[in-house]
Amino acid sequence: MGSSSHEDDLEAQIDASERPLLLEFTAPWCGACRAMKPVLRDIAEDAGEGTSVIEVDVEQQEAIALRFGVTTLPTYLLVVDGEEKARLSGVQTRARLSRLLGMRP
Predict the structure, then answer these.
(1) Which of 14, 33, 85, 104 could form a disulfide linkage to 26, CB 3.0–4.6 angstroms apart?
(2) CA nearest 102: which of 15, 22, 13, 17?
(3) What does the longest C-alpha to C-alpha distance in the chain come to?
(4) What is the SS3 assignment for 52?
(5) Active site residues
(6) What is the pLDDT of residues 64-98, one digit of tens each?
(7) Who's near 63: CB < 8 A, 6+ residues apart?
(8) What is the distance between the alpha carbons of residues 76 and 89, in angstroms, rounded to a whole number?
(9) Closest by CA position to 59, among listed 5, 3, 15, 21
């Protein structure tokens, strides 16, 4: 299956970003992913302009999930200059995700 234009755009954004990215790998059917939405919203607000939080739907953006070897949902990756720097999988606390980004919980 080929990659979509949206997926190609996201790959380019991941590779070209000059600031840290928190990639949230999720799927519509993932209950734990849905439960984490409020936490991710808070993290994005706390991070401000310093870090972008990007949702990656593994069904729509399969090549990106494969690129990073994502096998568990939800998975959170800290990516800097296109390279994975840290990873957490499963339901996480706000404090733990904040620490992943180097923020104070």
Answers:
(1) 33
(2) 22
(3) 41
(4) strand
(5) 30, 33
(6) 999 999 999 999 999 988 899 999 999 999 999 98
(7) 3, 7, 11
(8) 6
(9) 3
